[in-house]
Amino acid sequence: MQQIFRMLTKLFQRARFEKPGQVDPRAAEFTLSLLVAMYDRSGTGYVKIRSAAAALIALSGDTLLAKYRAFFQFYAVPDGKVALITRSALRSLLTDLNQIPAIVGESCTLSCVEIATHDCFHGVLNSAIVEEKFLSWLRSEPAVLLWLPTCYRLSATEMVSHQARCR
């Protein structure tokens, strides 16, 4: 927890420097509380760095493609000159990401994760997939992660402005 808090403190200090007045001074504390609520429900005092990173990536303002690539980088394993994501790593990623909607009562069952994993690996003979296959599957907006592109689209529309007059 302390390591994550230090990381968050640095992250939000940098954000406050880049966008003065737009970042709450307690942002690191609030974010840590959210991560603890999502990933330490039993009160062990431990949150996996990879789980915290997945949540921060998912909740960031970056593009969907950038988020998807970052997920791959965090969960993939090197295999020679390429990185691959295994079924087990995909299950971990989906389980970690599903803690985000679960915090607001929109949880998904373990079978949802299994169905999504099976769907991603449909027709794949190997035990792992390359980044392009992973990205292609995510672009198809699997039901287990439908909240992610939906939230992205909602946040993207916040900045839209047009010159039309409404009556």
UniProtKB/TrEMBL annotation:
<feature type="domain" description="EF-hand">
    <location>
        <begin position="65"/>
        <end position="154"/>
    </location>
</feature>
<dbReference type="GO" id="GO:0005886">
    <property type="term" value="C:plasma membrane"/>
</dbReference>
<dbReference type="InterPro" id="IPR050774">
    <property type="entry name" value="KCMF1/Dystrophin"/>
</dbReference>
<dbReference type="InterPro" id="IPR011992">
    <property type="entry name" value="EF-hand-dom_pair"/>
</dbReference>
<protein>
    <submittedName>
        <fullName>DYTN protein</fullName>
    </submittedName>
</protein>
<dbReference type="Pfam" id="PF09069">
    <property type="entry name" value="EF-hand_3"/>
</dbReference>
<dbReference type="InterPro" id="IPR015154">
    <property type="entry name" value="EF-hand_dom_typ2"/>
</dbReference>
<dbReference type="GO" id="GO:0045202">
    <property type="term" value="C:synapse"/>
</dbReference>
<dbReference type="GO" id="GO:0099536">
    <property type="term" value="P:synaptic signaling"/>
</dbReference>
